[in-house]
Amino acid sequence: MHPAVRTRTMAPRPAVTAEPQPRTRRVRSLIDADAIRVLHRAARVLMDDLAELTDRLLAVVQDQEPAYRAAVESDPVGVWQEMHRSLRHSVASLLDPRGARDGARRCSWRIGATRAEQGLPLDAVLHAFRLGGSLVWQGLVEETSRRAPEDVRLLVHVAADVWHFVDEHCTIVTDAYRQVERQLAWRRENNVRLLAAALLDGTSRIADLPETARALDMPENGRFLVVAVAEGGRAGTRGAAVVRGAARVHWHTGVEVDYGIVLLGEGGEGGEGGEGGEGVRGGDGGFPEPAGGPGARIGVGGAVDGLASVGEARRLADTALRMCPPDGGTVRLTEHLPAALVVSSPELGGTLADRVLGPLDRMEPADREVLLDTVATWLACDGSAQRAGERLYCHRNTVLNRLRRFEHLTGRSLARPTDLVEISLALTARRLLAR
Q1: How many helices and strands (H and E) does the chain possess?
Q2: Which domain holds residue 242?
Q3: Is 146 inside a domain boundary?
Q4: Strands 258-264 and 223-231
């Protein structure tokens, strides 16, 4: 901190010459010495009347800074003591700049830090501090005018130093305020992150739900779904999703997957019709739009009731995400429930695939893939050999021949409903679990 009054050292005395040297430096030093004497005389009076000066400052701040009124009303003694300490350090710095410097700095730092913790606006704190500086200067002038009016002109020589002190301590207050503000913001963000992580993990305690709801700005008893977003096989920033038709979304950034906790709007499952939590909209086909570039993989889970069930919603979103193609895409769980059953129980899915499709393992790999691709295409075409042939660029009779060969090798009938269900699930398990 620069001292309120800078000490000016005398220039070295010049060597004696034939011509007399100008006396301007000596006159200037005499003026400075007189100014310091006047300053110290007035400052000692202010120090003696510090309680009265504090009362005046408190009244001025209450009158001119509305943001301080609530602080004064809630803790009048504390605010008065804070102002008293600040004024004492300020006046002491006029009397002993070097000796009072560190204490004054610590006092200003504490004021900035304390007011940041209390949430008082920084502009209000700085305004109050400058009002204190103005009051000290006014007190110096008033006391000098009362005691020796002719000496008021000497205070001009120390005015810059006094106001430099005020500016410097405003900077200290600002630095302390912003440092604490950053710390508080980090704590709030970290607390929100921890609460959201516990919610998604399903480890939140019932007693913590009200705090979690406040932190996420969401109701405890709403309808929610979770969107899981990842980016597979490509470089770049992991994608996010644009969620339309949702009342609110809180994004939680994970190591490999980002999760959006979606509060669905009024009107059922998401405010845009449909079922199973279709409040997530965007892009072609009503899915969230990947906003992180090509390769973004998005899984949309089903809707659940209440924040306490968000952990289950996250597991549903993870299941949908596991069904996403490796090169990117969006999968909504409610539109792929059979596949979700397979992914949710990979051991059983693998067993089913081995049981139904195992006999094909004795074939040449290329021939086996042709048969499996033909059956999968025929199923996708709702059992139409004509449309399957068009997709596979072959005649419908070729499709029918391949289907009969598949039935012969596996011992399953595509006309029998139970066999058809097993074949469909086995193909799904083979496609999803082989990744």
Answers
A1: 15, 8
A2: 220-335
A3: yes
A4: antiparallel
Residues 307, 224 contacting (CB under 8 angstroms)? yes
Tell me the C-alpha distance between 313 and 227, whole Å: 9
Quick check: 224 and 264 in contact, CB under 8 A? Answer: yes
Band of pLDDT at residue 190, cut at 50, 70 and 90: very high
| Percent above pLDDT 70 for the chain | 83
Q: Taking residues 363-392, what's their average pLDDT? A: 92
Rounded Cα gap, residues 18 and 16, in angstroms: 7
- CATH number of the structural domain spanning residue 368: 1.10.10.2840
Q: What's 246's DSSP letter?
A: E
Say how far apart CA 145 and CA 151 lie, in whole Å: 7
Percentages of the chain per state (helix, strand, coil), in multiples of 5: 65, 10, 25
Same domain, 29 and 145: yes
Give the integer Cα–Cα distance in Å for 260 and 401. 48
pTM check: above 0.85: no
d(CA 386, CA 394): 9
